[in-house]
Design goal:
alpha+beta; Thiol Ester Dehydrase, Chain A; 7 strands; about 15% helix; about 35% strand; globular
Length: about 160
Amino acid sequence: MCFCCGPARQAGDGLRIFPGVVDGTLLAAPWRPADHVGDATVPTEIVWAALDCPGIRAHIFVRTGTGDKGVTGSMAVLQVRRVPANQTALVLAWPIGRDGKIYAGAALATECGDVMAIARQTLIVTDDGVPLDLEVWRTAPAPAIGSTPRGKVVKS
Protein backbone atom coordinates (compact mmCIF):
# COMPACT_ATOMS: atom_id res chain seq x y z
CA MET A 1 0.00 0.00 0.00
CA CYS A 2 3.03 2.33 -0.12
CA PHE A 3 2.27 5.55 -2.04
CA CYS A 4 5.43 5.16 -4.15
CA CYS A 5 5.89 1.43 -4.68
CA GLY A 6 2.75 -0.26 -3.41
CA PRO A 7 1.76 -3.02 -5.84
CA ALA A 8 -1.72 -3.26 -4.29
CA ARG A 9 -2.52 0.29 -5.40
CA GLN A 10 -4.53 0.57 -8.58
CA ALA A 11 -3.52 2.70 -11.57
CA GLY A 12 -3.97 6.39 -10.74
CA ASP A 13 -3.69 5.82 -6.98
CA GLY A 14 -0.08 6.23 -5.93
CA LEU A 15 3.04 6.40 -8.05
CA ARG A 16 3.49 2.67 -8.74
CA ILE A 17 7.26 2.94 -9.36
CA PHE A 18 8.81 -0.53 -9.56
CA PRO A 19 12.50 -0.31 -10.51
CA GLY A 20 14.45 -3.42 -11.40
CA VAL A 21 18.13 -4.17 -11.80
CA VAL A 22 19.45 -3.03 -15.18
CA ASP A 23 23.23 -3.20 -14.70
CA GLY A 24 24.87 -4.82 -11.69
CA THR A 25 23.96 -2.40 -8.90
CA LEU A 26 21.85 0.12 -10.85
CA LEU A 27 18.07 -0.06 -10.72
CA ALA A 28 15.81 1.83 -13.12
CA ALA A 29 12.16 2.29 -13.99
CA PRO A 30 10.21 4.51 -16.37
CA TRP A 31 7.68 6.82 -14.72
CA ARG A 32 5.16 9.10 -16.39
CA PRO A 33 4.18 11.62 -13.71
CA ALA A 34 1.12 12.88 -15.64
CA ASP A 35 -0.51 9.57 -14.87
CA HIS A 36 -0.38 10.57 -11.19
CA VAL A 37 -0.44 14.37 -10.96
CA GLY A 38 -2.57 16.90 -12.77
CA ASP A 39 -0.10 19.81 -12.76
CA ALA A 40 2.24 20.84 -15.59
CA THR A 41 5.18 20.12 -13.31
CA VAL A 42 5.54 17.54 -10.58
CA PRO A 43 5.14 19.05 -7.08
CA THR A 44 8.24 18.86 -4.86
CA GLU A 45 6.66 16.46 -2.38
CA ILE A 46 5.89 14.00 -5.22
CA VAL A 47 9.50 14.27 -6.48
CA TRP A 48 10.69 13.34 -2.97
CA ALA A 49 8.22 10.43 -2.80
CA ALA A 50 9.41 9.15 -6.20
CA LEU A 51 13.01 9.08 -4.93
CA ASP A 52 12.32 7.39 -1.56
CA CYS A 53 11.43 3.75 -2.24
CA PRO A 54 13.80 3.13 -5.17
CA GLY A 55 16.80 3.56 -2.84
CA ILE A 56 15.33 1.00 -0.47
CA ARG A 57 14.71 -1.35 -3.40
CA ALA A 58 18.37 -1.00 -4.40
CA HIS A 59 19.30 -2.75 -1.16
CA ILE A 60 16.52 -5.30 -1.54
CA PHE A 61 17.66 -6.30 -5.04
CA VAL A 62 21.42 -5.75 -4.81
CA ARG A 63 22.46 -6.31 -1.19
CA THR A 64 19.85 -8.87 -0.19
CA GLY A 65 20.19 -11.74 2.25
CA THR A 66 21.00 -9.81 5.42
CA GLY A 67 17.65 -10.40 7.07
CA ASP A 68 17.57 -6.70 7.98
CA LYS A 69 14.54 -4.46 8.03
CA GLY A 70 14.82 -0.72 7.49
CA VAL A 71 13.04 2.60 7.23
CA THR A 72 14.07 5.91 5.73
CA GLY A 73 15.78 7.90 8.47
CA SER A 74 16.69 10.91 6.35
CA MET A 75 16.88 11.96 2.74
CA ALA A 76 18.53 14.95 1.10
CA VAL A 77 17.31 15.96 -2.36
CA LEU A 78 18.78 18.40 -4.84
CA GLN A 79 16.23 19.27 -7.50
CA VAL A 80 18.18 20.90 -10.34
CA ARG A 81 15.18 21.55 -12.58
CA ARG A 82 11.44 21.15 -12.61
CA VAL A 83 10.13 17.71 -13.47
CA PRO A 84 7.59 17.98 -16.31
CA ALA A 85 4.49 15.93 -15.65
CA ASN A 86 3.75 15.21 -19.30
CA GLN A 87 7.05 13.46 -20.10
CA THR A 88 8.36 10.07 -19.12
CA ALA A 89 11.08 10.26 -16.47
CA LEU A 90 13.65 7.65 -15.58
CA VAL A 91 13.87 6.74 -11.91
CA LEU A 92 17.33 5.45 -11.03
CA ALA A 93 18.61 4.01 -7.74
CA TRP A 94 21.78 2.43 -6.41
CA PRO A 95 23.16 1.24 -3.06
CA ILE A 96 26.00 3.34 -1.63
CA GLY A 97 27.05 1.29 1.39
CA ARG A 98 26.56 0.77 5.08
CA ASP A 99 28.19 1.35 8.45
CA GLY A 100 25.35 0.28 10.73
CA LYS A 101 23.08 2.63 8.79
CA ILE A 102 22.38 1.94 5.12
CA TYR A 103 23.00 4.53 2.40
CA ALA A 104 21.45 4.71 -1.05
CA GLY A 105 21.24 7.12 -3.95
CA ALA A 106 18.37 7.85 -6.32
CA ALA A 107 17.77 10.20 -9.22
CA LEU A 108 15.14 11.36 -11.66
CA ALA A 109 16.35 11.95 -15.20
CA THR A 110 14.87 12.75 -18.58
CA GLU A 111 14.78 10.01 -21.19
CA CYS A 112 17.93 11.64 -22.66
CA GLY A 113 19.71 11.24 -19.31
CA ASP A 114 19.60 14.84 -18.06
CA VAL A 115 19.37 14.79 -14.25
CA MET A 116 16.34 16.61 -12.81
CA ALA A 117 16.74 15.57 -9.15
CA ILE A 118 19.18 13.51 -7.13
CA ALA A 119 18.91 12.16 -3.59
CA ARG A 120 21.02 10.59 -0.88
CA GLN A 121 19.10 8.49 1.58
CA THR A 122 19.95 7.08 4.99
CA LEU A 123 18.06 3.98 6.07
CA ILE A 124 17.84 3.02 9.71
CA VAL A 125 17.91 -0.70 10.50
CA THR A 126 14.97 -1.51 12.80
CA ASP A 127 12.71 -4.48 13.51
CA ASP A 128 9.73 -2.29 12.55
CA GLY A 129 10.99 -1.55 9.02
CA VAL A 130 10.35 -3.11 5.64
CA PRO A 131 12.22 -6.33 4.92
CA LEU A 132 15.45 -5.71 2.99
CA ASP A 133 15.59 -9.31 1.79
CA LEU A 134 14.49 -10.24 -1.74
CA GLU A 135 13.33 -13.71 -0.70
CA VAL A 136 10.80 -12.17 1.70
CA TRP A 137 9.37 -10.13 -1.18
CA ARG A 138 9.36 -13.09 -3.58
CA THR A 139 7.30 -15.19 -1.16
CA ALA A 140 4.89 -12.41 -0.11
CA PRO A 141 1.26 -13.05 -1.04
CA ALA A 142 0.01 -11.19 -4.10
CA PRO A 143 -2.72 -8.57 -3.57
CA ALA A 144 -6.24 -9.90 -3.93
CA ILE A 145 -7.84 -9.36 -7.32
CA GLY A 146 -10.51 -6.70 -7.08
CA SER A 147 -9.03 -5.17 -3.96
CA THR A 148 -9.11 -1.42 -3.66
CA PRO A 149 -6.28 0.64 -2.21
CA ARG A 150 -7.99 0.43 1.15
CA GLY A 151 -8.25 -3.36 1.08
CA LYS A 152 -11.98 -3.54 0.48
CA VAL A 153 -13.28 -5.96 -2.11
CA VAL A 154 -15.10 -4.38 -5.03
CA LYS A 155 -18.19 -6.27 -6.18
CA SER A 156 -18.77 -6.29 -9.91
